[in-house]
Amino acid sequence: MLLCQKRLKVRHILTFVTGMVESLGFAGIMFGWPSLVFILKTQGFFASFCVNATDIDGSLAQDCTGQDEQFALVFTIASFLNNFLTLLNGLIFDRFGTLVARLFGLFLHTSGILMLAFSTPVMSTLLYPALSFIAVGGMMLLISNTQVANLFAAHRSTIITIYNGAFDTSSGVFIIIKFIYEAGISLQASFLFLAACSVMHVLRTVFLFPRTFIPYPLPEDYTYGVSCRKKKAKESQQVTSQTTTEEEPPAKDKPEIPEKTFRECVLSRLFLLLLLWLSVIQLRHYLFIGTLNPTLERLAGGDSSVVSQYINAYAFTQMCHVFCSPLNGLILDRHKRKPRVAGMSEQEADLNSAVLSFFLTSVMAMVFSISAAIPVLQLQYFTFVMQVLNYAFLYGGLTSFISVVFPTCHFGKLFGLMMALSAVFSLLQYACFAVVETLLHGDSLYVDIALTILILSSFSHPASVLVQCRNLAAQRAKASASCQVAVVA
Q1: DSSP conformation letters of 224-270
Q2: Contact by Cβ (8 Å): 411, 402
Q3: Could you write out the DSSP letters of every residue in 107-165?
């Protein structure tokens, strides 16, 4: 028995560690797009959209605005589908379980990588489905890995935020590919290696995940994969079932607390304001990532070496997501390190912890947006740092909040619907890019100011959660007072 418990603990740790490797190296690589764009431009992808133009001084120059628009459109479509099809991912995950969901996600992810491996400047349009497949498949890997946090109840929110941070950190894979490419190794070889690693993901799916789900809270005798306790646990479950049937008559009048329906969750104030919070901050980030290359080119006066230097700096800061995200997890889990107030439910404690997390995320989004709007090249180093901090807090807080506030049986659907609706809003990034390139002649200052003002609306969510906490505290105090009166009487 003791040996089996040790093996099960080792399996929990192995599941977590391999999930970190998967998230760090594969799940969110699409967000390293600026690093890959730099290489694709040198190879001549979408070069046919560059046209000859005349500068103010009468000299001939190439205008590659059309090329930039194509690369921005590739990222816009991929980021849209990354969020919008998360609803489909969530439905598949909730309906068919972990095994089917992960195999579906791995098929898409590997197919996208193979498309990148065999794409050429002649087949530039292959970038559209390639990046989109990688995005959708990677999101499925994140959703399935999120449930690993259920194995570590005391640190559940922290582990969820760590996985989200690792997902964002994986954007650094493209900067590694950029360095390898500059060292003389082809893009095709790098992408074929990534595709071959899918074998490892399949083995992990089969041996380190259940076919269905990892439940929360975790049953005391819960096992998954190959375990010496599985048979014994099954026999114990059968004995328990028989004992219950023979010794305990069905309690028809026993009151049950019904869980919220999916419709009630979606129409709740917490869900709707969480959607607004996510949408406005996410739009700011997506527009920043999608337009980073042309923005740096404009600020650097077209000096490609300077642009490459800043792209490398951006990529290196992206790799720090995994170190920043646990900060948010510690904020969300801080109430678990001390006893709760008498009468306070676990959900109420989770909500109290979430207020500070959401407020800090909105503040960081505001600082990041203001910094990005100032057209000073050297200031972009600070912008990169703020972008990483804010992004690390954004999705970790979102995922943790949905998992602790709403019923577990609706997690996949609610997370998917949240991402899908925010994806529709994120389509505005291409409209913003078009306005900057056509009407504002490459100067994004006015659009940046408008988005910064829009981010002010994100503060409505932490305010709403705070109001909810105070209402619950008032109800608890009222119930406690009623009990005291009844005792005295």
Answers
A1: -SS-TTHHHHHHHHHHHHHHHHHHS---TT----PPPPHHHHHTSHH
A2: yes
A3: HHHHHHHHHHHH--GGGGGGHHHHHHHHHHHHHHHHHHHHGGGGG-GGGHHHHHHHHHH
pLDDT at 392: 82
User: By C-alpha distance, which of 430, 452, 250 is closest to 363?
Assistant: 452
Sign of CA dihedral 15, 21, 25, 28: positive
Burial class (CB in 10 A: 0-12, 13-18, 19+), 367: middle
pTM of the model: 0.72
Could you tell me if 458 and 276 are in contact, meaning their C-beta atoms sit under 8 angstroms apart?
Answer: yes
Specify the amino acid at residue 431. A
State residue 246's pLDDT score: 37
Picking from 236, 205, 242, the residue whose alpha carbon sits closest to that of residue 222 is: 236
Q: Specify the amino acid at residue 179.
A: F
**Alpha carbon distance 469, 447 (integer Å):** 36
Is residue 105 classed as helix, strand or coil in its secondary structure? helix
How many other CB atoms are there within 10 angstroms of residue 463's CB atom?
Answer: 14
Query: Any long-range contacts for 123-129 (C-beta under 8 Å, 24+ apart)?
Result: 124/45, 124/46, 124/70, 127/40, 127/45, 127/74, 128/73, 128/74, 128/77, 128/78
Q: Provide the 3-class DSSP secondary structure of residue 407.
A: coil
The first and second tokens of residue 200, run together, are 């490892």
Alpha-carbon span 172 to 162, nearest angstrom: 16
Cβ neighbours of 293 (radius 10 Å): 22
The pLDDT value recorded for residue 84 is: 84
Integer Cα distance of 99 and 105 in angstroms? 10
pLDDT computed for residue 225 by the predictor: 65
Residue 257: φ, ψ to 5°:
-90, 110
Indicate the burial class of 245 (C-beta count within 10 angstroms; 0-12, 13-18, 19 or more): exposed
In this prediction, the residues of the chain whose per-residue pLDDT falls under 50 are 228-257
Element (DSSP H or E) covering residue 166: helix 156-169
Angstrom distance (rounded) from CA 110 to CA 127? 14
CA 140 to CA 203: how far, in whole Å?
Answer: 16
Residue in the block written with tokens 């980030």: 285
pLDDT tens digits along 179-225: 899 899 999 999 999 999 999 999 999 998 888 888 877 887 788 76
Strand partners for 53: 61
